[in-house]
Amino acid sequence: MASLNVGSLGEYIREQRRNAQYSLRQLAEVAGVSNPYLSQIERGLRKPSAEILQQIAKALRISAETLYVQAGILEERDGDAPALRAAILADPLLNERQKQALLAVYEAFLKENRETGESSGAAAATGTVPATPPAGSADADADADADADADTGATG
Amino acid sequence: MASLNVGSLGEYIREQRRNAQYSLRQLAEVAGVSNPYLSQIERGLRKPSAEILQQIAKALRISAETLYVQAGILEERDGDAPALRAAILADPLLNERQKQALLAVYEAFLKENRETGESSGAAAATGTVPATPPAGSADADADADADADADTGATG
DNA sequence: CCCGCCCGCTTGCAATTGCAAGCAAGCCGC
DNA sequence: GCGGCTTGCTTGCAATTGCAAGCGGGCGGG
Please, how many CA atoms are within 13 Å of residue A101, restricted to the half-sphere of its CB? Predict the structure, then answer.
């Protein structure tokens, strides 16, 4: 696996963790992995197995597939727009009429966004749900420190 | 990972390999893994990484996702309504309002289907494509031997 | 008999993965 | 100042992963 992918995986996990306002130890605990290992993963020093990615994803409340894609072990649904199209078409719980209807709604929204130039440019593009940290802590201070570390990490 | 899953993974790979009429060594070579390791995988003695599964799947000309599902590192798609939910929430081209709207439509369809008991239950099977073996060999004999081994392997 | 080829599997080992124990630094209250 | 707590990271180690070298067996041809 190219270290480039592993690097982006770690950055991605760190980003999601911060979005969720978890400290490294908090996420490690919730995910059931050791905090040093999670640190190494975030810094791209280790390449975690799919099981570990699954655990991390679950703790971050994102889909495991998202992390698999980042790790390069799953193909991206290439093209964000086609991804949802494919998902709609592949959903076994919908019949053909409903699929087409959903697609039509989706296309209408895309068109609307193109015309208004509006989209959810929120950083939570991956559907991250900011979770409350498990324990109270000096959140403001932790964020400040985390930002400084993030700059350092980007160098790695 | 429960050894049960690993066991079924190995059995599945062996089955697909036989369908493709590959010997263990042939598949190992095409997949780019060592033949002893492939043997161990098939017998459930080792739990391969996603990368190895990817290589094996490619050699067998099946989707990697199929093997991921067998290995338990990917959720099976069928009946997995949350997958489309996740896709909607993950789509970066939609804003929050549109995401919620699409989800509402989706939920309405699911409810409709539950009441009518109707859905397009087209099950896209794993689509195994038997491939021709890379080299000619005593296929009949190899199959006979392989069957005997298969029985032994099932005991393990 | 021999040899060569094929088959699947055994075994020992190096590299990798994931962890436990612990470090250093920052912040806060006394 | 101190101690207690939090933070992210370092380090050594055990277990696991994947491989190379090789085994034993079957088959066919000389």
Answer: 15
CA pair distance B110, B118, nearest whole angstrom = 10
**Is B120 (CB) below 7 Å from strand C?**
no
Q: Which residue has the higher pLDDT, A114 or B6?
A: A114
CA B56 – CA B61 distance, rounded (Å): 8
For residue B155, give both structure tokens. 């005991």
Alpha carbons A16 and A124: distance in angstroms, whole number: 8
Q: Which range has the worst mean pLDDT, A63-67, B76-80, B129-133?
A: B129-133
Could you report the predicted ipTM of this complex, rounded to two decimals?
A: 0.64
CB–CB contact B109 A102 (8 Å): yes
CB contact A90 to B (< 8 Å): yes
SS3 for chain A is CCHHHHHHHHHHHHHHHHHCCCCHHHHHHHHCCCHHHHHHHHCCCCCCCHHHHHHHHHHHCCCHHHHHHHHCCCCCCCCHHHHHHHHHHHCCCCCHHHHHHHHHHHHHHHHHHHHHCCCCCCCHHHCCCCCCCCCCCCHHHHHHHHHHHHHHHHHC
Name residues 23-82 of chain A with a Cβ under 7 Å from nucleic strand D: 23-26, 35-36, 39-40, 42-43, 45
**Locate tokens 């080299």: which residue?**
B135
Whether A51 has its CB under 8 Å from any CB of chain B: the answer is yes
- The answer to whether A17 touches A27, Cβ cutoff 8 Å, is yes
pLDDT in tens, chain A (156 residues): 434 344 589 999 999 999 889 999 999 999 999 999 999 999 999 999 999 999 999 999 888 888 998 898 887 654 444 567 777 777 777 777 788 888 888 878 877 777 664 433 333 333 333 344 444 333 333 333 333 333 333 333
Query: Tokens 């996420």 identify what position?
Result: A27
